[in-house]
Design brief:
The complex is a heterodimer of chains A (556) and B (364). Chain A has 556 residues and is mainly β. In chain A, 10% of the residues lie in helices and 61% in strands. Chain A has a single domain, classed as Maltoporin, Chain A (Beta Barrel). Chain B folds into two domains: 97 residues, Immunoglobulin-like; 225 residues, Lamin Tail domain (Immunoglobulin-like, Sandwich), CATH 2.60.40.1260. Classes of the chains: A mainly beta (556), B mainly beta (364).
Chain lengths: 556, 364
C-alpha cells in the first residue's frame, strides 16, 4: 500500500521528481528571513541545504539565527517539516509551493522525504535516474540587516544520481559546485554572520565577496532484516571565500555531515523510523593585506562592543558541531490517505577561536573567546486525504521550539539568550477541474513568540507575531508530454522578528514547465520572482529572481 | 520494534539530559559611579573639594575609548558597561585660569557584571608650563608603495614664557631589546637605555639662541619637503620649522631654508626615521648627551611610547610616561596627537588619541 500511495498522482506521475526539486520547492514554501526575502532566501537555502548539503541544513538548524536572527532554520522546519532534507518537487514548487494538497512523489510524508531518514530511500527510490541541475539565483534590495549583502547571485551546477541495486540496496551520489557572488557586504567577514551566536568578525570596509566550492554526497540504503531498513549518508563540502578589498579576507569553510537511520515496517501500512545526523564544520577567516600593510579587525561581542586588533594578519575560526535525532511515523490508514509524523531534537554549539602568538617559542595557539549553544525541538504532523478521485485535502500541524545562548568564555559571562516558539496549522485542497487542469490552494497560520535578551548590548525584546500565508497553484496539461505550472503566494508577517518591520507582506510568483522528451529523459524548468516589503512606506523591499532547470535521465 | 522503541527512549533522554545550562551571570549588568572633585583651596591643610562640573571623562578598556561627561554635581553614573578593567581620566579647564587643566587619572578600575563600582577621582591642576611632544606622525600616508618619508614630530610650548631649544636632543629609543626593553631603566641607575638615534638642536643647553615662543607649535620634519608632489595623499612639510639632517648620510635631503637638527651618532648613516607603529620618542634637555650609557631621566623633558596594540607590553620607564599610546595602522594617513595641546599627565594612554590626518603646526 505504501508504494501504491507513493505512486499516486493526479495526472502524469512526477516520476522525475528529485530530491533537489524538493529542496527547491521547500524554498518556495519557506519564508526565510535570513535575507529578508522570501523567494530568493528560500532559494538561497536551497543552495545551502542542497548544494552545500544536509550538513549545512543541520548547521543552519544549529546556528539558526536566533531571535533576531535565526529563523533561517526555524521557518524551514516549521513550514516544511522538522528535518526537511528532502522536501518538495520542482513541480509543486512551480505551483506555488503547494506541498499538502498536491500529491507528488517528493511530497510524500514518508520517513525519507519528510524526515530525512536515509534508510527509507530503499523503499522510496525504486528506479535509477541521473539529474543535471544548473541554477541561477539572485536577490537584492535594501530591506535587510546590516551585514546582509545588498545583493547576491548564486550559480550552481549539480549532478545527482540514484542507482538501484536490487536486493543489495539503493545508492545515491551527488556532486555539485556553487559560486556565490555577494555585492556590497558591509564589513562582515563571516559566511553567515547571522548564525545566532553573539559574535561578529568585521573589518572597516564595504566590499564584494565571493564564495565558491564543491560538495559531494553519498547515500546508501538497504534492507537489513526483513522489514527493517538501514541507511547512511555522508557529505563533504568546502567553500573558498575572498573579500575583494582592503583586508582581502580569505575564508575556508569546510563541512562534514553524516546521517544514519533505521526504519521498521511494523505493518504493511505503518512504518517507524529513527535517524541521527551529525554536523562538523569549521570556518577559518584570515585577513592579510596583500600589500603587507596592517589590517584593522573588530571582534564583536554582541552588537555594540568590540575588541579592536591590528596587525599584518588577523584570523578567526568558527567551529560548529551539532547533531540531530529524529523519529518518524508513517501511516497509511487506507489507500486514500497518508499521515506522516516527525519529531526531532537538535543541539549544537559554536566555538569562536582566536589565535595568538606565544612569543617565547614563536609558536601559535588558540584561545576560546566565545561559545554558543543551540537547542531545537520540532514536531511536524501532516496528513492527506483523497475525498474524491479528483479532490485531495491536506492538513498540517507544526511546532518548533528553539533556544540559544552565547557566552564570553574567559569570564564565563552570558552575552545573549533567545528563545523562539512557533506553532502553525495549515490546510489545503486540490481539485482536478478537467483531465488537463489541476488547481489548488493552501493556507497556513503561524504564531511566533520570540524572547531575546542581549545582555551585553542592554537590549531585550519580547515579540509575538501572527503570520498568514496563502498559496494558489495551477497545473495544465498542454500536450501529452508538456505540462505547465503556475503559482502565487501571498504572505503577511505581523512582526518580522528578523528584519524588524511590521505587517511585512510578501508575494511570490512562480511558473514551471515539464517536458518529457522521451522515455529516456525529461526536462523540468522553473522561474520565480519574489518581493518582500514592510508596510511603513519606507520604500524598502527585497526582491528575488531565480531560474532552475532539471535535466533527468531515466536510466544510466 | 522493541529495539526501535528503546532507541527512541534513549534519544529522548539524551536530548533532555544534554541540554547545556547557560552561565549564571549575565554580561552588562554593572554599574559604575564616579565622583570627580578637585581641591580649590590654596592650602593643603584646609582642602576645599569642589565638584568637577561637566568635565570630560575618558574611559579606556579593551573595548576602546568612551568619552562621557559629569553632571552638575561632578557625578557620572554609567550602567551596562561590559566587564573589563578600565582606566579613567577626568579633565576640565581650570575655572579661573585657562592655562591650567584639572586632570585626574585612576587606573585598573575593575568593573564586574552584577556589581556596583564606586570611585572618586581627585583632579589636580596641571600647569602646562613646559615643552611637550604634541604630535607624532609615523605611519605614512595612504599608499601602496611603502612610502613613509613624510614623518614629523610636533612640539608645543604650553608655558607662558619663551623656551630655548639650544642643545636639546630628540631621540629614538628602540634598542635594549635583550633587556627590559626600549626606554626602560636597565640596571636601575636612573637612566633610560636603548637609544638608537640621537639628533640635536644646535648650541648647548643653557644658551638662548633658538627661542621657542609660548603657545606655539614647532614642526620637526624628517625631511622638510613637499611630499604631495610625490604622493598625493601626503603632506607639505617644506615649511617645517626644523629638519632632521644626517650629515653622515650621502643621500639625506637638506632643505637650506629650514634649520637642522644634526646627528650625534656617526655610526648611524640614515635619516631620523622611526617605526611606523612601534617606537619610543624622547625629547631631552641635552644636559646628558652621552647616549651610550643611557640618558638620565632627570634630563628628559618628554617621552612617548607608541605601539600597535594596547595590549602590548609597555617598556618605557614610568618616570618618563606611565602609559602607552595606540598607534594608527601603517599607511593609513592617520596621526597621534595629544587630546589637549601640551597637556601631559604622564599617561600617554589617556593623553593621546589617534586623529584621522596629520596636523603639522596646529591642533585638530
Amino acid at each position: 500500500m505504501i508504494n501504491k500511495m507513493q505512486r499516486k498522482y493526479k495526472f502524469g506521475p512526477e516520476e522525475g521528481s528529485s530530491l533537489f526539486k524538493e529542496r527547491v520547492a521547500q524554498l518556495f514554501l519557506c519564508y526565510s528571513r535570513e535575507n529578508g526575502n522570501l523567494f530568493s532566501a528560500q532559494i538561497k537555502h536551497f543552495i545551502d541545504s542542497h548544494f552545500r548539503g544536509n550538513d549545512r541544513l543541520i548547521s543552519c538548524a544549529t546556528r539558526s539565527k536566533g531571535m533576531c536572527c535565526k529563523l533561517y532554520f526555524l521557518l524551514i522546519v516549521s513550514l516544511c517539516c522538522p528535518s526537511g532534507l528532502f522536501p518538495q518537487s520542482i513541480r509543486s514548487m512551480a505551483m506555488g509551493g503547494m506541498d499538502l494538497a498536491v500529491i507528488d512523489k517528493e511530497n510524500s510524508f514518508n520517513p525519507f522525504y519528510l524526515g530525512g531518514n536515509p534508510s527509507w530511500m530503499y523503499e522510496s527510490e525504486k528506479e535509477s535516474w541521473l539529474k543535471i541541475v544548473p541554477s541561477i539565483i539572485n536577490y537584492s534590495g535594501d530591506y535587510r540587516r546590516i551585514y546582509t549583502p545588498q545583493s547576491s547571485s548564486l550559480y550552481g551546477m549539480e549532478f545527482k544520481g540514484v542507482k538501484t541495486l536490487g536486493t543489495s540496496g539503493t545508492f545515491l551520489g551527488s556532486t555539485s559546485y556553487t559560486y556565490d557572488n555577494r555585492k556590497n557586504v558591509y564589513r562582515s567577514l563571516e559566511y553567515n554572520p547571522y548564525a545566532g551566536e553573539s559574535f561578529f568578525f568585521t573589518d572597516t570596509t564595504n566590499s564584494d565577496v565571493t564564495y565558491d566550492g564543491p560538495r559531494v554526497e553519498f547515500m546508501y540504503s538497504w534492507e537489513l532484516l526483513p522489514n527493517l531498513f538501514a541507511g547512511a549518508s555522508a557529505s563533504y563540502s568546502i567553500l573558498k571565500g575572498l573579500k575583494k578589498q582592503y583586508t582581502y579576507a580569505e575564508t575556508t569553510l569546510r563541512q562534514f555531515g553524516g546521517n544514519v537511520g533505521l526504519t521498521y515496517k511494523l505493518m504493511d501500512n505503518l512504518v517507524f523510523g529513527l535517524n541521527a545526523r551529525l554536523n562538523d564544520s569549521q570556518e577559518k577567516i584570515t585577513s592579510q593585506d596583500v600589500n603587507l600593510m596592517d589590517v584593522e579587525i573588530f571582534y564583536y561581542r554582541g552588537e555594540t562592543y568590540s575588541i579592536y586588533k591590528r596587525s599584518a594578519s588577523e584570523e578567526e575560526k568558527l567551529r560548529t558541531k551539532g547533531n540531530t535525532f529524529s523519529s518518524q511515523v508513517y501511516w497509511l490508514p487506507d489507500e486514500f490517505s497518508e499521515v506522516g509524523l516527525t519529531a526531532d531534537y537538535s543541539r549544537s554549539n559554536i566555538n569562536v577561536l582566536i589565535p595568538y602568538s606565544v612569543s617565547s617559542t614563536e609558536s601559535y595557539d588558540e584561545y576560546q573567546d566565545g561559545y554558543s549553544s543551540f537547542n531545537n525541538y520540532n514536531l511536524c504532523l501532516k496528513g492527506r486525504y483523497e475525498l474524491k478521485p479528483s479532490l485531495i485535502a491536506g492538513l498540517a500541524f507544526e511546532y518548533s521550539n528553539m533556544s540559544s545562548w552565547s557566552e564570553y568564555v574567559p569570564k564565563d559571562l552570558l552575552l545573549w539568550e533567545w528563545k523562539i516558539k512557533r506553532a502553525s496549522v495549515g490546510f489545503g485542497m486540490s481539485y482536478n477541474f478537467t483531465q488537463s487542469l489541476l488547481g489548488g490552494f493552501e493556507y497556513r497560520f503561524s504564531r511566533v513568540d520570540a524572547d531575546s535578551s542581549k545582555y551585553i548590548d542592554g537590549r531585550t525584546a519580547s515579540i509575538t507575531s501572527n503570520d498568514h500565508l496563502i498559496k494558489i497553484g495551477l497545473e495544465y496539461l498542454l500536450f501529452t508530454n508538456l505540462k505547465l505550472q503556475a503559482g502565487y503566494n501571498y504572505g503577511l508577517l505581523g512582526q518580522d522578528i528578523i528584519g524588524g518591520g511590521k505587517n511585512v507582506s510578501y508575494n511570490i510568483l512562480s511558473a514551471g514547465a515539464a517536458i518529457d522528451i522521451s522515455d529516456l529523459w525529461s526536462i523540468d524548468a522553473l522561474i520565480g520572482y519574489s518581493n518582500l516589503k514592510p508596510d511603513n512606506n519606507s520604500g524598502l523591499n527585497r526582491t528575488g529572481l531565480t531560474g532552475l532547470i532539471v535535466i533527468k535521465l531515466n536510466s544510466f | 520494534m522493541k529495539i526501535l522503541s528503546a532507541l527512541m527512549v534513549v534519544c529522548l533522554l539524551y536530548s533532555y539530559g544534554c541540554k547545556e545550562p547557560p552561565p549564571v551571570t549575565a554580561e552588562g549588568n554593572s554599574r559604575l559611579e564616579l565622583t570627580a572633585v578637585w581641591n580649590a583651596s590654596e592650602s593643603d591643610s584646609l582642602p576645599d573639594y569642589q565638584a568637577l562640573k561637566n568635565a570630560k571623562v575618558i574611559l579606556s578598556s579593551e573595548y576602546g575609548i568612551q568619552v562621557r561627561q559629569t553632571d552638575n554635581e561632578g557625578k557620572l553614573i554609567i550602567t551596562g558597561l561590559p566587564s573589563s578593567v578600565y582606566g579613567i581620566s577626568v579633565r576640565m579647564q581650570h575655572p579661573n585660569d585657562p592655562n591650567i587643566q584639572l586632570v585626574g587619572n585612576i587606573k585598573d578600575v575593575e568593573v564586574l557584571s552584577g556589581k556596583v563600582s564606586c570611585d572618586t577621582i581627585i583632579a589636580k591642576p596641571i600647569s602646562s608650563t613646559g615643552i611637550a611632544i604634541n604630535e607624532i606622525y609615523a605611519c605614512g600616508p595612504e599608499n601602496n608603495i611603502f612610502f613613509f618619508y613624510d614623518q614629523f614630530i610636533e612640539l608645543y610650548n604650553a608655558s607662558d614664557s619663551v623656551k630655548y631649544l639650544d642643545g636639546m636632543m630628540v631621540m629614538r629609543v628602540s634598542g635594549n631589546l635583550d633587556g627590559k626593553g626600549s626606554g626602560a631603566d636597565e640596571g636601575d641607575d636612573g637612566d633610560i637605555d636603548g637609544v638608537t638615534y640621537v639628533f640635536k638642536f644646535p648650541g648647548n643647553p643653557g644658551e638662548k639662541n633658538y627661542p621657542f615662543p609660548p603657545k606655539k607649535f614647532l614642526v620637526l620634519a624628517v625631511d622638510a619637503a613637499n611630499f604631495k608632489s610625490t604622493i598625493s595623499t601626503s603632506i607639505d612639510l617644506s615649511k617645517a620649522d626644523w629638519e632632521f639632517y644626517n650629515q653622515y648620510s650621502a643621500t639625506d635631503i637638506d632643505n637650506p631654508s629650514v634649520p637642522n637638527l644634526i646627528n650625534m651618532r656617526p655610526d648611524k648613516t640614515v635619516d631620523f626615521l622611526y617605526s611606523l607603529t612601534n617606537d619610543v620618542i624622547v625629547l631631552s634637555s641635552g644636559v646628558d648627551s652621552v647616549w651610550s650609557d643611557g640618558i638620565d631621566i632627570s634630563t628628559i623633558i618628554d617621552g612617548v611610547q607608541y605601539k600597535s596594540s594596547a595590549s602590548m607590553s609597555k617598556t618605557i620607564d614610568d618616570r618618563v610616561d606611565r602609559g602607552l599610546v595606540l598607534s594608527p595602522p601603517r599607511y593609513s594617513g592617520k596621526s597621534m596627537q595629544r587630546r589637549e595641546p601640551g597637556v601631559d599627565t604622564n599617561n600617554g594612554s589617556l593623553d593621546w588619541e589617534i586623529i584621522p590626518y596629520p596636523t603639522p603646526g596646529y591642533q585638530r
